[in-house]
Design goal:
- The longest helix has 22 residues, at about 25-45.
- With about 70 residues, the chain is an alpha+beta fold.
- Helices cover about 55% and strands about 20% of the residues.
- The radius of gyration is 18 Å and the shape is flat.
- It has one domain (about 10-65).
- It has helices at about 25-45, 50-65, and strands at about 10-15, 15-25.
- β1 and β2 form a beta hairpin.
- The two termini are about 30 Å apart.
- It contains two helices and two strands; from the N terminus they run ββαα.
C-alpha cells in the first residue's frame, strides 16, 4: 500500500466528512517526478515512429473519445 511505503498520507477532506484526501508525501512526490521523467522519455521515443499527421489524428480521436465519457 502506498501509505505503508510512505508515499502518501491521508488528510481530512473539507468537502466530505468520511472520505479522506490522498496527498503525496515528499518521498511520494519524488517518485512521481521520476515517473514523469520516464514517461516523457518513453513518449518522445515512441512518438518518433509516427508522422505529425498520424499523431494529430490520434490526438483528435482521443479528444473526441474523452468527450463521450
Amino acid at each position: 500500500m502506498l501509505k505503508d511505503k510512505g508515499l502518501v498520507r491521508f488528510e481530512d477532506n473539507p468537502d466530505h466528512k468520511r472520505a479522506k484526501l490522498v496527498v503525496p508525501t515528499e518521498q511520494g512526490r519524488e517518485v512521481l517526478d521520476q515517473l514523469e521523467e520516464i514517461q516523457i522519455a518513453w513518449s518522445n521515443t515512441v512518438s518518433k515512429e509516427f508522422s505529425t499527421v498520424e499523431l494529430d489524428r490520434v490526438f483528435h480521436t482521443m479528444k473526441a473519445l474523452g468527450g463521450k465519457i
